Amino acid sequence: MRDPVGSEIQRVIQLLARVPGLGPRSARRAALHLVKKREQLLEPLAAALQVVYERITTCTTCGNIDVTDPCCICLDPSRSPHILVVVQDVSDLWALERAAILKAPYHVLGGVLSAVDGVHPEHLNIPSLLQRLENSSITEVVLALNATVDGQTTAHYLASLLPPQLKITRLAHGVPVGGELDYLDEGTLTAAMQQRSLL
Ligand SMILES: [Zn+2]
Questions:
Q1: H, E, C per residue of 14-52
Q2: What is the pLDDT of residue 3?
Q3: How far is the CA of 4 from the centre of ligand 1 (A)?
Q4: With bands split at pLDDT 50, 70 and 90, how would you rate the model's confidence at 18?
Q5: Are 101 and 92 in contact (CB under 8 A)?
Q6: CA–centroid distance, residue 106 to ligand 1 (Å)
Q7: Which residues neighbour 48 within 8 Å (Cβ) at sequence distance 6 or greater?
Q8: 101: pLDDT confidence band, cut at 50, 70 and 90?
Q9: Largest CB tally within 10 Å, which of 39, 124, 149, 193?
Q10: Ligand 1 centroid distance, CA of 19 (Å)
Q11: How far is the CA of 66 from the centre of ligand 1 (A)?
Q12: What is the Å distance from ligand 1's center to 60 Cα?
């Protein structure tokens, strides 16, 4: 039986299906929606993708991705010059920016140390981090890494490398907002109890 979808649209579906979070079914729905909303959605999306494709670059200061180098965060004068937030990936930077908790610049490591995945210190943006800290006004480094074994191993490794006069902090571990104690694992409960704070 002949495929009801033309090869050009089929190609769009195949490419969309490779996007994380979309499978073949979601890709078909998205493609159909885009085609139906040709003027309102497909055209501006294609134009936006073209601009990003042509201009996307990695910030040589922090490792963020943007259409300018330095990126808009590094260029933002309202951010604290005394705090630097270290994250694993750009997605973590975006998550912290969405929460808008701390106005500070970032440093993207590009991964975490992992014996299983063969990620060693030389694979991470560590030299550029140490370079940034040299002769800078930064007094605190926040190691905002995942609360996983690899994330915490990386945090301890970095802490051993950073200049000793710096204040080195990490995110608190514990009860998530809206979390019920009964559902938490023992590791999380232990961390939450150890890091209990004044009410
Ligand atoms: Zn940057």
A1: HHHCCCCCCCHHHHHHHHHHHHHCHHHHHHHHHHHHHHH
A2: 64
A3: 46
A4: very high
A5: no
A6: 7
A7: none
A8: confident
A9: 124
A10: 25
A11: 8
A12: 7
